[in-house]
Amino acid sequence: MQYDEGKNFLSVKVQIFETDIQEVLMIAHGIDIVKDGNNPNIQKYVDEYIWHNLKIQIDGALKNDYVFIKKGKNFDALIYEYQLKGVTKTPNTIKVEATYLMELFEDQTNIVTVSIGKRKKTFPLKAFNTEAEFKINN
What we know:
This protein is of the alpha+beta class. The protein contains two helices and ten strands. It has helices at residues 18-29, 42-53, and strands at residues 2-3, 9-17, 54-58, 61-63, 66-74, 77-85, 93-98, 110-116, 119-125, 131-135. A six-stranded mixed sheet has the order 5-6-2-1-8-9. Strands 4-3-7-10 form a four-stranded antiparallel sheet. Helix 1 packs across helix 2.
């Protein structure tokens, strides 16, 4: 996640292995993203899955007004990029809960990186600790 002052949004990138998101969509919707690659609902289902399992609070307020920007690929991982709207000033705190893929893999680790200006912090989140908080002024 990255916030740049003056842009009024938080940039959010979620990287998931292609085989993992393929398994999620197969279980939840019976869709194979390789065979059914032209299905117009795939991105909608991916968005729903990600935002059901990724909660972001800015200064105590839950933010879920996102816009899908693009999908990219990094070797065997897919990268989904979003803009989280309504972030009108530099946040004092950002709290993140990331539980995606934890229903499939008990040892799943979700890496969350928050960048604001020159400050950057990375959090490894696991099933026993799914939340992290980034305090700007500390």
